[in-house]
Design brief:
Elements (H helix, E strand, L loop, with lengths): L9 H8 L15 H10 L7 E5 L5 H8 L4 E6 L5 H10 L4 E5 L15 E6 L5 H9 L8 E9 H8 L9 H9 E9 L12 E8 L9 H13 L5 H4 L7 H7 L13 H12 L1
Parallel strand pairs: 1-2, 1-4, 2-3, 4-5
Antiparallel strand pairs: 5-7, 6-7
Length: 279
């Protein structure tokens, strides 16, 4: 018996269903059910929430979410080998787990859930950043989800929470922090996974703000930030020359030195520049 439910230990489940992790699917499993329950608790109160999980694998985090009281879990799994193990969990938690086989990049899983919605996942490394960007850029804000609690490579996690002047500061930090409060809530060594990845990992918790931190048109802001960081070693007056012919004057009007570089500029200043460009 595990520490969180009456189902067998994950190591036994993996052996019985021959679920060796596949590198091509970005799979690294957490076998410690006390740790998966801890990650579930970091997502906040789940008792009245629907939860979306991507890449459940043999179901370690799935069991943590259900044991911590999630109203309902929708688990999207690409690997058909994992379905029998997940079916056993669904049987142990009647009516609370739905498993959807498919590619999370190709299905609209959120449309199947009822708010409040939390997204909690040990994301496959090969699709984690793309999924995050999609969740951060819905057509309408605030989004249907209330929070994201996601496992990434430590390097990606640091990019999400980075501040101006940090080596990791860039487009991902601005995108996340414009509309969310973001913090690293747990760090994990390679040994926490089977098989151990070559990198450290971290869990990031993002809470959706009711409105963006500063007003700006998302398309204009994204265009400015992309141009600035695509040539991050250049002064902004050079990196943004293609954005507007009078870019130096606009930079100064936004309180930005034209000779500054992208990694020196904060979110508020980028938003001010976006508003001026839109005007």
């Amino acid at each position: 018996m595990s520490a969180i439910d009456s189902l067998p230990p994950l190591r036994e489940v993996i052996a019985r269903h021959d679920l060796s992790a596949k590198k091509a699917l970005g799979q690294n499993f957490i076998l410690d059910l006390n740790l998966t329950a801890r990650i579930a608790r970091l997502a906040g109160d789940l008792s009245g929430a629907d939860v979306l999980e991507v890449g459940p694998g043999p179901g370690g985090l799935t069991r943590g979410l259900l044991a911590m009281g999630a109203r309902r879990v929708l688990a999207v799994e690409k690997d058909p080998r994992c379905l029998p193990a997940l079916a056993e969990i669904a049987a142990a938690y009647p009516g609370r787990l739905e498993v959807l086989q498919g590619d999370a990049l190709a299905v609209d899983a959120l449309a199947r859930l009822t708010p409040p919605i939390r997204i909690v996942a040990n994301l496959p490394y090969n699709v984690g950043t793309e999924l995050l960007v999609r969740w951060l850029t819905p057509p309408v804000w605030p989004p249907v989800w209330a929070s994201l609690t996601l496992m990434f490579q430590r390097e990606v996690a640091e990019r999400i929470v980075a501040r101006p002047g940090d080596d990791a500061y860039g487009r991902l930090a601005l995108l996340a922090q414009w509309r969310c409060d973001a913090q690293i809530v747990l760090s994990l060594p390679p040994e926490a996974f089977t098989p151990p990845p070559k990198v450290h990992s971290a869990v990031v918790h993002l809470t959706a703000l009711p409105a963006p931190r500063y007003p700006a048109d998302p398309l204009v802001l994204n265009r400015v930030v992309a141009a600035a960081f695509n040539q991050r070693r250049k002064m902004l007056r050079s990196a943004l020359r293609g954005i507007a012919p009078d870019i130096e004057g606009l930079l100064e009007a936004a309180g930005i030195k034209p000779t500054a570089r992208a990694e020196e500029i904060g979110l508020e200043q980028f938003c001010a520049l976006a508003r001026l460009l839109q005007g």
